[in-house]
Amino acid sequence: MIPSDPITLVLSIILCLFFVLLFFGRKKNTYNLPPGPRPLPIIGNLHILDMKRPYLTMHELSKKYGPVYTLQLGVEKVVVICGYEAVRDALVNHADEFSGRPKVAMFDEMYKGHGIIMASSDNWREMRRFTLSTLRDFGMGKEAIENKISEESDFLVQKFRSYKGEPFNNIMNINSAVANIIISILLSKRFDYEDPTLLKLLKMSNENFHLTGSPMAMLYNTYPSVMRWFTSVTEKVLRNQDVVHAFIQENFIKQREQLDGNDQRNLIDSFLVKQREEKPNPKLYFTNENLTVLVADLFDAGMETSSTTLRWGFLLMMKYPEIQKKVQSEIDKVIGSNAPQVIHRREMPYTDAVIHEIQRFGNILPTSVTHATIQDVNFRGYLLPKGIQVIPLLTSVLYDKNHFVKADEFYPEHFLDSSGNFVRKEAFMPFSAGKRSCAGENLAKIELFMFFTRLLQNFTFKAPPGATLDLTPAVGYTASPMPYKMCAVPRV
């Protein structure tokens, strides 16, 4: 019977077309995702995750589901890759296929595809090429940057001496010292540790690292359209980011006015010269937006990873004073009272092993920065679709018991042979690997060696009387130590 009412007729036709399209137009799902825990409707596997430290749950799940498994966050499927062999297979052997970045609500709002960390496709390739080239030009791996770090180490020693062996929280001092190194490359300047501008920038950056790794941030990224009504976490992150961006823009506007293409003083000058050269090109990469986010990316990454590693280092030296004594003995033997230089590292296998073990045990970036496939990928017997989010779980690499015999302990001997010689470990992957590995890796290695040795040369680090040294990581995008106080006792 045909409906007489025209509206009912139209609705009936639309409904019929819908079912026809649903039945005949539905594509067969040809993808073969790896197995994983059974998801619940709407929430997926969120109910089984440790929301404060999800990487712990992800690592545990690999014991049941193997090195490649599927996790569902809300309605989105995520592929988790665990263990050295599988992670290296993805990031090195399939480097191109896994080189994308996923659509993540909070990061999309923060970065809008600009910069280097969360950018994708041609924009990312252009920014990474420029960044690596410019960091080399301005001293990364050269004597000039080594001299800057040596000078900054002396400032930090003076600051620690000012506490006269009394307890203090080291976070802002170490943040400031490490930040000054990357700032010298970006802006050709240095800030005093009490400078209100620097302290404000560091406060905004530290807060954002905490907020973007919080349980509320995970819920927001899973249900952005709903959670924006229930949490202000993204608003806080964006407000903090605006402060940093305003500072950067103020500086590059000043530098543009004084720009001399034949005398490039820092990375911003180099970018502005590229911007001039690119002007006739309709497809622009060297834009003000890219410059702002790129400088913020390098400031945040250049400060956070090295300073957090150093804070883990001093905490671990207090926890294991016998290891601290052995490091100091080697420093005294090889360096004496001279200023540490990178060349000394070759003669200091134990200190080198301790620094590597601090990085491994500290596990600064436990989930890495999430990746995405840029095309359909056949990987270890599974067919992964283009655009799926992929988590190369660095925790599972750095704590891989097939490569580190006492993975759950702080054990510098992981990097020493029976004769006490330093041994490189292929599973040592704190900077990730492949095309998305950390652009500042070489700079970070120099910073860690020079700051660590200079401070242990001058001080013995001790816990305040009655203090408990907690090795539980804090909640955040990076796994930093819980806030602690320490005593820097001058060495005689």
User: Structural class of the helix and strand makeup?
Assistant: alpha+beta
Q: Identify the strand order in the major beta sheet.
A: 1-2-7-4
Shape call: globular
* Amino-to-carboxy terminus distance: 101 Å
Please explain how this structure is put together.
This protein is of the alpha+beta class and 492 residues long. It is 51% helix and 7% strand. It contains 17 helices and 9 strands. The chain has helices at residues 6-24, 54-65, 84-93, 105-111, 121-137, 143-161, 171-187, 196-212, 215-222, 224-227, 233-257, 267-278, 288-319, 321-334, 349-362, 394-398, 441-458, and strands at residues 68-73, 76-81, 168-169, 371-372, 377-379, 382-384, 389-392, 459-462, 485-490. Strands 1-2-7-4 form a 4-stranded mixed β-sheet, sandwiched between helices. It has a 3-stranded antiparallel β-sheet with strand order 3-9-8. A two-stranded antiparallel ribbon has the order 5-6. A hairpin with a 2-residue loop joins strand 1 (68-73) and strand 2. Helix 6 (143-161) packs parallel to helix 17, helix 11 packs across helix 13 and helix 13 (288-319) packs across helix 15 (349-362).
